[in-house]
Design brief:
10 strands, 21% helix, six-stranded mixed β-sheet, 2 helices, 180 residues, alpha/beta, four-stranded antiparallel β-sheet, single chain
Length: 180
Amino acid sequence: MTAFRLIWLVLVVGLVQGCSEFNDSVVAGDTLLVIPQQAQNLSYDSWARKYHLVIEYLDAPTHEQREIWLNPDRHPIQWVSGLAPGKYRLKQVEWSDPNAWLNPRQSTMLEPINYYFAVQKGKATVLPMMFVMTQSDGGEGIESHFDVEALAASDLTRLTAQLQQVLGVSHGQLLTASTL
């Protein structure tokens, strides 16, 4: 089997597993938060940084916080199911460096976002931003870059089509998160 066919097989199996998880959540009337991400690893190393989003549930008396780990090795659509319906704030992005013991100031870095949104039962809420992770080998070691970009209309159209076609979500189940 050629390398291309093997990669294609792994991608299809990953999508099928993701599809079943996604459909089960939506069919069960659960909430679903869809997180668009884009990852490009141009180095020969595994990812040097681990990224996660910190969201805050505003309808809880204690404003509970939850970490959502971004997985750059997965499909460009990442999702979280089982969030309680209600209002949320995407507070910040944090990342950690496994080599932080060399420089304690790099153990956790923050990028504030402060984006407010709501999730509804039986709906898939799409965050209108793309989380872009890039890693390259600059000759002097690994260089990691992270950016948050507004989701362009063309990206949203493509993402919506993917959610409807590949994951089997109906148009009525899709919401684009908007600022509260």
